[in-house]
Amino acid sequence: MFERLLYLNNIIGIVLLGLLGSIPMTELGMVVDIMRPLLVWDNPQKAMKENLNVFFSMGIGLAYISLISLIVYYCISRLRLNVNIIYFIVSTIFILSSYLIFVWLKKLCASQFINIE
């Protein structure tokens, strides 16, 4: 029974980390879209199919997740930390980066919307 609860604990932790990790990834995509808006297009399909912002967002997201993965690998292999401590470290990184990117995104939106108009 204890092994079953431990298994459920890991599943809940992984799901919560996935949800927390999606927030900064989405915000990074929004930063790329704000910095490189595609405002000139002939039809809606052209705006969606010829937009390279998704490619850049995926590259930035890959670098971000790779950095988090290296931190987790270091915590597991070198420091031999408990799984719950690693969950706490990664969730703290996700929360802090989400907040910092959000603050940056607000400032960026304010300045970019003035330039667009």
Commentary on this structure:
With 117 residues, the chain is mainly α. The chain has one domain (2-116). It is built from 4 helices and no strands. It has helices at 2-35, 44-49, 53-77, 83-116. α3 (53-77) runs antiparallel to α4 (83-116). The longest helix is centred in the first third of the chain and has 34 residues, at 2-35. The radius of gyration is 19 Å and the shape is elongated. The N and C termini lie far apart (62 Å). The chain crosses the membrane at residues 7-32, 52-73, 85-105. Keywords: Membrane, Transmembrane, Transmembrane helix.
Distance between the termini: 62 Å
Contiguous low-pLDDT stretches (5 residues minimum) are none
Strand content: under 5%
Query: What average pLDDT do the residues reach?
Result: 90
Tell me, briefly, the overall form.
Answer: elongated
Largest sheet: none
Number of DSSP helical runs? 4
Using the CA coordinates, give the radius of gyration: 19 Å
Task: Tell me the count of domains.
Answer: 1
Order of helices and strands: HHHH
What is the helix fraction of residues, given as a range? over 70%
Q: Give the class from helix and strand content and strand pairing.
A: mainly alpha
* Tally of DSSP β-strands: 0
Summarize this entry quickly.
Keywords: Membrane, Transmembrane, Transmembrane helix. By secondary structure, this protein is mostly helical.
